[in-house]
Amino acid sequence: MASTPVLKCHGLRRRFGDLVAVDGLGFQIAVGETYGLLGPNGAGKTTTISMIAGLLERDAGEVIVAGRAMTTKTVQAKSALGYVPQELAIYPDLSGLENLLFFARLYGMSRAQARARAREVLELIGLADRAKDATKTYSGGMKRRLNVGLGLLNHPRLLILDEPTVGVDPQSRNAILESVAGLSGAGMAVLYTTHYMEEAERLCDRVGIVDHGQLIAEGTPRELVGMVGEFDSVVLAAAGDLARAAKVLATMAAVKKASVTDDSIDLVVAQARENLPALLETAAGSGAAVRSVTVTEPDLEAVFLHLTGRALRD
Amino acid sequence: MRAALLIAGKDLKARVRDRSALLIGIVVPLGLAFIFNAIFGGISNSKSISLGVVVADRGTAGQAFVRQVLTPLRHSGLITVHQEGSAAAARSLAAKGTLNAVIVVPGGFTAAVEANRPASLIVIENASAPVTAQIARAIADSYAANINRVRLAVATVVAPSPASFSPARVRQLAARAAATTVPLAIRDISARTKELDNKSFYAAGMAVFFLFFTVQFGITSLLEERADGTMARLLAAPIPRGSILGSKLLVSFVLGAVSMTVLVIATSLLFGASWGNPVGVGLLVAAATLAATGIMALLATFARNAEQAGNAQAIVAVVLGLLGGTFFPVSLAPGVLARLTFIAPQAWFLRGLGDLRGSSLSVIWTPIAALLVFAIVTGAIAVLRLRRIAEV
Fold first, then answer.
1. Which positions in chain B touch A85 (Cβ < 8 Å)?
2. Across residues A209-221, what is the average pLDDT?
3. Which residues of chain B have a CB within 8 Å of the CB of A106?
C-alpha cells in the first residue's frame, strides 16, 4: 500500500436489536487504490459503508477520511467524500443538470463553479445531450450513470460506490466499470462494494471479504486466490438427492468443500481435472444424476467458498 | 442556513412543477369558497328586511322617532326602511308581502304623551314574515320604553306641585329628560355579534381548512426523500443535519403562508370577502400556518412512509377542520361541541378574524397566543421525533 491512507477504519461495530450487522471490522485504502468489499447479501457491506460515509451512527470503532474523523455530524470529512448509494438517489422531477447543480451547491460551490462542474460530469457520464430532460424520462442505465456522476461532483478523495451495478443492463454495467477503473487512474481512492466476484477481480487492487459482519480475508485478488492453492471450483449440475451426494463427495480426500446451490453441487477440489472421473463416479453412486460439469480455475468465488463453505450468491 | 435554503428552493421548485400544492393550496379552496358562497351566501346577508314606517304624528315624539329610530335603522344596512304615507297603504303593502312589517306612529301621539294620556304605537305584521314582525315589535317596544322613561322622569319632578309647572316648562323638562343618556345599558358582545359575514366566513373557513393540507407537502417530502434514497445522499453531503429538517419545515411554512396570502387577496377581490385589518390578518395567518406546520409535522413522525403520513394528516385535518368550524359557524354548534371547537387551531383563527372586525389589534392576542401554543408544543415534539426520520 502506497503513501498515507485516504481511509482508515478499525473496530467498526453496529448492532440492530439482536442482530450484530458489523462486528469489529477495519481496513485502510491508499490514494489511487480501488478497494473492494466482497460478500454476499446481508454480510454487512452496506452498514459498513454507511458508517464510513457518516450516514449511520456506529456503536464502536473509528473512521478517518483524508485525515479527519468521520461522524454523522461531521461536515469537513464529508467534503472529501463522494457517495453513490445502492438505490437510485436522484430527484425525478428535476432534470439531470438540475440534480447536479443542486448537489454541487450543497457541496459549497458557487453558481458558476457548480454549472461548470455539472457540465464536466455530464460529459463524463455521457448525458450531456439529455441534460435538460427530467430524469423520470431517463432509462434505467442513464439514471444509474447519473447516480454515479452525482458522487463525482466534488472531486472526492474517496469515492464510495455501494453495489452500483445492481439491476443494470450489461452495456451500462460495462460503462460504469470502465468509469470506475478510470477514476483510480486519476488518483481517486475508491471503495467498491459488490457481491459480483468478477467485478471485484476486474476493478480492485485489494479486496476485503466480508461475512457475518466480519472481515474474514483481505489482500490482492492474486493473494486471495493463492489462499485456495491448487484448488479448483467444480460445479456439478445434477438431479436427485443432491444433499446426500454432496455429503458423500465431501468425504473424498481431493474435495475441500462441498455445498448445494439450487440444482447443482458446488465443490472446491484439488487438481480437479485429474480427479473428475472419481468425482462423477461418486456422485452417481450417491444418488445424483449429473447433467453437466463446469470446472473453473481458482477465483474469488472459490476463495469465498473455501473460507465460508458457502457460495457468494447463497 | 445556506443548505436549508438550497434544499427548500429545490423542494419548492418541484412543488411548483407538479402543481399539486397549487391545486390543494389555492384552486380547490377558492373553488369551494365560491360554491359555498353561491349556495349559502344569500341566506342571511344579501336579503335585507323590508320594514314599513308610517309617521302620522307631527309632534316632538314623532320627530324623535324619525331621528332616533329610523335614521340608525337606515344606516345599519340590515333593514330597508320604507316610509309610507298612511297606515292603510302600509297595511295593504304588508298584506301583499311587499313589506315584512310596519310600525305606525299615529296622529296625536305626541299630544297624548304630553297630556299623560294612554298612547300607542301600532305594529302591523306580515304573517309570512314572523321574524321581521318580532324585530318590528322589539323596535316599537324599545321606543315606547324610552318615551315612558321620559314621562316617568317628568312626572317625578312635577308631581309634588303640578300647579307650579306651565305646559312650556313641562315640555322643557321632557326635552332635557329625553336628551339625557340612559344610565344603564346592556351591550351585546356575544360571539354572535362578532361573527364573519358569509362571504368572509366561507373564504376564511376554506382557506384555513386547506392550509392543513397544503403544509403537508413540505414535511412529507422528508419521508419521500427517505423512500427515494435521496436522504442518504443528503446525509452524506457536508451540511448540518438540522438543515435538512429545517428546510422541510420552512417549505411547509412558505407553502402555507403563500397559499393563505393568495386566498386572502383573491377572495377579497373576487367575492368581496372582508378579512379585516391587514396587519392583524397577517399575524393570524402566520400563527395559523405555524400551528398547522407543527401539527402536520408531528403526525408525519408517526408514519412509516409519505402515503401513511398523508392519510393520517388528511384525517386529522378534516376532523380539526370540522371541529374548528370551517364549514359552519361555531355559534351553531351545541354546547359540548362549541367547547370542543377550541381544541382546533382553525377555531382560534376564525375567532381571531371575527374579533378583528371593527376592533383594534389588541383583541387578537388571545387567538394568536393559542395558535402559537399549538405551534410550539407540536413543533417541538415533532422536531425531536423527526431526527428519527432523518436517518438512512
1. 229, 232-233, 236
2. 90
3. 3, 6-7, 234, 237-239
**Alpha carbon of B229: minimum distance to chain A alpha carbons (Å):** 5
* A 25-54 near B (Cβ less than 8 A): 50, 53-54
Output the CA–CA distances (angstroms, integers) from residue A13 to A10, A44, A47, B262, in the order listed.
9, 10, 9, 53
Enumerate the H helices of B41-166 as residue ranges: 60-65, 71-76, 87-96, 109-114, 130-158
Can you give the residue ranges of every domain in chain A? 5-225, 230-297
How are the residues of chain A apportioned to helix, strand and coil, as percentages rounded to the nearest 5? 40, 30, 30
Q: In chain A, positions 209-238, which contact chain B (CB-CB < 8 Å)?
A: none
The C-alpha cell 408517526 sits at B302
**Could you say which architecture CATH assigns to the domain A230-297?**
2-Layer Sandwich (3.30)
E strands, B343-392, in order: none
C-alpha cell at B300: 408525519
Mutate to test the interface with B, among A75, A93, A106 (most CBs of B within 10 A): A106
Question: Start-end ranges of CATH 3.40.1710 in chain B?
Answer: 48-185
Q: Which of A105, A111, A193 to mutate to test the interface with B (most CBs of B within 10 A)?
A: A105
Mean pLDDT of A132-136: 93
- pLDDT, one tens digit per residue, over B46-83 is 456 788 889 888 888 888 887 877 777 777 666 788 88
Closest residue in B to A49 (Cα) is B236
Q: Domain spanning B48-185: which CATH class is it, in words?
A: alpha beta
B237 touches chain A (CB under 8 A): yes
- H helices then E strands: how many in chain B? 18, 4
A72 and chain B in contact, CB less than 8 A = yes
* Interface mutation target, options B5, B226, B230, B244, chain A, most CBs of A under 10 Å: B230
ipTM above 0.90, yes or no: no
Mean pLDDT of A308-314: 65
Low-confidence ranges of chain B (pLDDT < 70): 40-48, 76-78, 180-195, 329-334, 358-359, 388-392
CA distance B240 to chain A (A): 7
N-terminal to C-terminal alpha carbon distance within chain A: 32
Task: Tell me whether residues A85 and B229 touch, CB distance under 8 A.
Answer: yes
Q: Which 3 state secondary structure label does DSSP give A42?
A: coil
pLDDT tens for residues A137-171?
998 888 988 998 999 999 999 999 988 887 777 77
Total residues found in chain B within this entry: 392
- Other CB atoms within 10 Å distance of the CB of residue A297: 11
Listed in sequence order, the residues at least 6 apart from B73 whose beta carbon sits closer than 8 Å to its beta carbon are: B51, B79, B81, B139
Please indicate whether, in this complex, the C-beta atoms of A54 and B236 are within 8 angstroms of each other: yes
Residues of B with CB below 8 A from A54's CB? Answer: 235-236
> What is the rounded distance in angstroms from the CA atom of residue B291 to the CA atom of residue B275?
20
Give the contacts of B211 (CB within 8 A, at least 6 positions apart). B25, B256, B259, B260, B288, B289, B292
pLDDT of residue B275: 87
pTM for the structure as a whole: 0.69
CATH fold, domain A5-225, is Rossmann fold (3.40.50)
Integer angstrom CA distances of residue B222 from A184, A275, B248, B387, B391: 35, 60, 7, 11, 10
Q: Are the C-beta atoms of residues A232 and A297 closer than 8 Å to each other?
A: yes
DSSP alpha helices (H): ranges in chain A? 45-52, 76-79, 96-106, 111-124, 140-152, 170-185, 197-203, 221-228, 242-249, 272-285, 300-308
Which residues in chain B (3-62) have CB-CB distances under 8 A to chain A? 3, 6-7, 10, 13-14, 17-18
